[in-house]
Amino acid sequence: MHYAFLTHSNSSHHGSFAQTAAVSRTSRDCEAPEKEGQPFCLNAVVCSADAVKQRNLINSETADIRGKVTFDFKNPEALKALTTTLLQKDFGLQVEIPSNRLVPTLPLRLNYLLWMEDLIHFSDKPREKETKGVDIGSCGASCIYPLLATTTNKWKILATEIDNESVDCARRNVARNGLEEFITVKHVGAGTILKGAVDMDHTYDFTMCNPPFFRSERDADSSSKSRSNARTLPRGGKTGSSSEVVVEGGEVAFVRQMIQESAELRDMVRIYSTMVGQKSSLYVLKSELKKAGVASSTQTAFCQGNVTRWGLAWTFLPDVSLEVVSKKKKKEKPPMKYVVPVPVDPLCYTVSTVTSKLKAFFTQLQIEYKECKGNKRSSVFEVMAHKNTWSHQRQKRRQQKKYERQQTLEGNNSCETSVSDSTDTRSDLKGSGFTLPETPSPTLQSLSQTGITLIKRKGDEEYENNNKRLKKEEDESLQMTDDLLDYYNQTHNSGSPNEGSPQSTSQSELYSQSVKSGCIKMSQNLKINESAGDRFEENKDDKRHTKIVDNIHENEDCDPTLSPDTLQKRDDTSEGNSNSYLLNALVSVCKVGPDIVIEMSWLEGTHGRDAMHQVMQYIKNNLKIE
Ligand SMILES: C[S@@+](CC[C@H](N)C(=O)[O-])C[C@H]1O[C@@H](n2cnc3c(N)ncnc32)[C@H](O)[C@@H]1O
To answer: Ligand 1: which of 84, 112, 134, 138 to mutate, most ligand atoms within 8 Å of CB?
Structure first.
């Protein structure tokens, strides 16, 4: 007989619970594909379940026609025997569970504890201090959370419970495992959740709670009509007394009271948390948290097989950033990495030097940043950008130069037809007989932006070469624009361009021809790159290609003669509104062996990961340590 054991595979920094943890499925379930987004992977750890057999968990009547024996998950006695067997086998715990009490399913309990571990870890609690927590009103008869938490982490737990019978049984379970030094079981009155439970002379690292979810016996009955039709019936049998799972007002009322009491206790506890049984409750409770004025909060989903529960945590301490924990876990793709090159003076090659440079860039680019962590070996920031300040850098610089030049001219020249801006220059030039191509530069601009920052793909030589050539040609052509303007300004200031010398005509013709041929070449290149892009995207990501093409069109509208301000305004308006982030990412600077590595993990943003790539490119281009 083989059982599928769940192994936690996506968590945890300390690697505790890396051991096989619990059984929750039959071997038949094990063959079923995992649910999408499920944070656990089912490692089919094959184990001989002699102990399970010995305790008659296997109902031979449930053997199918091929003689395959299955586990009877509907049978509360079988569930109880399974849980106690696993606690013994995997954690060395001897646990008694009375027949009329809740049988804890281990994967869910472990999920919650692992999340708690992560929260504590990221809350930067000093390592040397022992971890003290409270298992509020949910120690139950088994005292499951305190037993697991102390066995695996040596945390000290105050476990509270209102039910007399459960309190007695929980105390026996603690004593049976010799854990009195770590766990205190406290009998509390029903009217209080936190205030009457915690010791006012102490501070705690966390509180946790698996509250009664239901407001009535009827709700608790899985076969009742109150259950939505969209939900499949639970596979497991019902265990537990109504006093354990039912509370007036259901979980929302229970947790609401908990939040209100936490607002009074505030900093006495670093992180408050609770499990939530229904997703709909989360929305209500999150607004309660807002009302209570918490400093930060986070939520997560515990997915195990068919059952999903949610975790909600909050803090009143401003230095505990819970959002970062959930965001860190949310990131689906590996972070972007950049190994900072060693400078001439290796003494400057430190995390703090790189960190200060990054802070300066963020300030310069108007990217908000919040330092989450900082020490000699690493620093972590959460960065938020509302607008794109890093694109069009070259264009903006060039525009700025032109402006400055024109301003100098205006200062020097009282001529009526002085150049006021590049658009005027264009029309003046037209009138003057110079042939300025109608809109050469939009194409160039579009190439500048699409070709360089958007079309670029790793590893495709043809692509890289095209981009390099585009960049070179663009530089040349734009340089010519500047030269032409210079030339025009010179001739214009010294008289009418119509009176230009043969030299001026030949220069303008030369210019016009080169720009034209540049444009033709570039449109060809654009096509080449587009088709290379097509090939690249064919089996990959159609959206990406659409995006490239969209950007080409968007950029074709771009007038190179726009003022730097107008350019910026255009960036601002095209890049989303003030309520949404264009980019929200985590940036870290870490010492990894001899290297200093900058990592960027995308969290969210209206422009996807492109914005993060662009900011990283900006850093690469500009980071000079000396
Ligand atoms: C859903 S059970 C959870 C039991 C156990 N922690 C587990 O996860 O299996 C909820 C428990 O909270 C207890 N409880 C309900 N209200 C309480 C309160 N105000 N203070 C303390 N315990 C309470 C119930 O008696 C019950 O044992």
So the answer is: 138
Residue linked to tokens 């990959």: 540
Place of tokens 């809740």: 102
Say how far apart CA 324 and CA 443 lie, in whole Å: 42
**Residue whose token pair is 């361009």:** 497
The residues of the chain that CATH labels 3.40.50.150 are 91-218+236-315
Any ligand 1 atom below 6 A from CB of 210: yes
- Which secondary structure element, helix H or strand E, spans residue 542, and what is its range? helix 542-556
DSSP line for 100-146: TS----HHHHHHHHHHHHHHHHHTT--TTSPPEEEETT--TTTTHHH
Q: Where in the chain is the domain with CATH 3.30.310?
A: 336-387+581-622
The dihedral through the CA atoms of 5, 10, 11, 13 has a sign that is positive
Distance in Å, CA 166 to ligand 1 centroid: 9
**pLDDT per position as a tens digit, 81-123:** 999 999 999 999 999 998 888 899 999 999 999 999 989 887 7
- 163 pocket-lining for ligand 1 (C-beta < 6 Å): yes
Distance from residue 14's CA to the centre of ligand 1 (Å): 29
For the domain spanning 336-387+581-622, the CATH number is 3.30.310
Distance 151 CA to ligand 1 centre (A): 21
Taking CA 336 as the corner, what is the angle to CA 549 and CA 122, rounded to the nearest 5 degrees? 130
91-218+236-315 is a CATH 3.40.50.150 domain: yes
Nearest alpha carbon, ligand 1 atom 16 = 137
Between 606 and 452, name the one with better pLDDT: 606
* CA 316 / ligand 1 centre spacing (Å): 24
Report CA(73)–ligand 1 centroid distance (Å): 23
Inter-helix orientation angle 461-493/393-412, to 10°: 10
ipTM value for the complex: 0.98
Q: Does the pTM of the predicted model rise above 0.80?
A: no
Q: Is 351 helix (H, G, I), strand (E, B) or coil?
A: helix
- Cβ(7) – ligand 1 distance below 6 Å: no
Binding residues for S-adenosyl-L-methionine: 109, 137, 161, 210
Averaged pLDDT for residues 424-434: 39
